[in-house]
Every structure is written in structure tokens, then in C-alpha cells.
Amino acid sequence: MNIIDLVINVAILFIMMVPGVIMKKCKLCTDVFGKGISNLVLYIAQTCLIVYAYLSCDASFSDIWLGCLMTFFLSFLAHIIFTAVAIPVFRKAPDGACRMLRFATIFSNAAFMDIPLIQAIIPDPTAAIYASIYNITFNLFLWTLGVKLCTDGLEHMRNDEDCDCHEQLSGAKAVSIKKVIFHPVTLASVIGLLLLILGVNNATLSSAHLGIISDSLLMLKNLVAPLSMVVIGLRLAELDLHGFFKDVYMYVFLILRHLALPIATVGVMELLSLFLPISDTVELVIAIMVSAPAATSATMFAEKYDCDAPYVSRLVTVSTILCIATMPLIVMLVQLW
Description:
The chain is mainly alpha-helical. 77% of the residues lie in helices and 0% in strands.
């Protein structure tokens, strides 16, 4: 993969943020507009993107099952590496900031930014499939560890005014596993795998005069990149740099999220490739996923669990801006190794 192509495509994604910034600054949208667009991308467009990726794959399931397995293993390992470092590093940070610094360090913007980027820059059609497998692991950690990080300590509250925290905590625990199983990415990946196993692809749909299905999926999946970046643009317009340069934890977070932990993960992956059949496509997918900015879902989790939402919005926005420089470096490192 050409690094210049990566830089250009990341730059294109950033240009797509501009409409979101304009709409927010000019008050052309309400505060709930971004949430509505996020739901459209998550539940409809992204689901269509994943299913279409499986339909576009000419390979059989027997050809890619090993790559899927390696992706699942490496994505699980990557989250373990990020978690093992993020938990102790930020233990002395203020409570609300501590939770979200850990959250933003561990979880990348794997769905909104990485999937459309991978589809644009990696010609191998299996790349999008591997990206969907990564997102299954991402959601597994998000709705278990992520909820734990945000709700940690709520069970110790005893005041009557905090009684809703107990309900919030128990509700979060009850819904976590259900969220993992019935998450749109998981369901779309299962549907895609079934289609792949059954040998259903764009060619078979066209021969059965059902090309309208794949054409519809194509149009809907093309919404992912522009709408995802519009949402990030809305967040960017809200950026408040007050006290930014005095925040030591912010610098630690940026170094870990964008350089230290992605490089460590790539190093471990390269070492494992000496013993395991890890393809170049799988390596590129993992490298892009782990070098992405902090997950936009961090803001939504912060608002839901009262974990200093303005602070985490700043983390996500600055992280998104910085990745235009750091992501190509990590991918270049993979290619050099």
C-alpha cells in the first residue's frame, strides 16, 4: 500500500468534517442532530457496508477463515495490551478524567473512521471483512470493559441522591452481554459469513436478477465515510482548548494512543508473525485499527455515566486531529518491518 495514498485518503476524510463544523458553528442543526446521524451510520449504513464487503469477496470461506481467526486473535491481543498499560498509567488522575483517559486510550475509532478508510486504501476485498472481525472484538471489550471503566466506583455511593447510580450500574451490567451479541456489527458479520459459506456474492445475485439488492447495499454503505466524518466535525466545532496545554495527562494520553501502544502492538504482531500465518492484509488492518484516534463513543459513554463529557470530547477531538500525522507513520512501520 502506498503511504501517499493513505495520507491523501486520511486528508479526504478530514475534509469531510468541514460540513459538520460549518453546521455546528452556523447553528444549522440541533444538539440531537449528531446522535441521529450516528444512529443512521451505526445501524444502517455500516451494517450495509459490512454485508456488501462479504458479497464483494470472490474468495471462499475456506480461503479466508484463517485470516479471520488471526484477526480475531490479534485484535483481542491488541485490546489486552492497551488495557494493561492504560489502567495503571492514569490511576492518579481525577476520578472522572481517570475513567475517560483509560477509555479513550483503550478504544479506537474502529468503526466510524477505520472501516471506510480501509476500504478506500486496501485493494484486497478481504480487508473490510477482517475489519468487521476486529469490530466484533472491539464491541466485546466496549460493552464489558468499557462499561466497567465508566461505572467503576458507582456501587460505593450511598447517598440517597445517588440512588439512580445503583440502577444505572445494574442496568449497565444486564445489558452489556446483550449489546455484544445483538450489536449491528456482530449481526452484519454473522450474516456476511453465512452468505460467504453459502457461496452468495454479487455475481450470484446478478445472475439471479437480484442485483438490485447489492446495488442498494452499495449506495447505503457509501454513506459511512461522509456521515461519520460529519459527526466528528460536529464534535470538532465544540472543541475548547481552555487549559489544554497545562494538562499533563492529555500529553500522556496522546503519546500512548498514537505512538507508544500502536508501535508496541505492531512489534508484538511482527514477532508473532515469525510463528503464526499472519498475512500482510491482516497486519495492515490491525495496524490501521490500533493507530486510529480515540473512539467517538467515548463521548456518548461519558454523557451516559456522568464521566466529564466536555473533557472527553476534547480528548477525542484532539486525538482525531493528531491521527492525520501519526497513522501513516504506524502503517509505514508495518511495511518496513
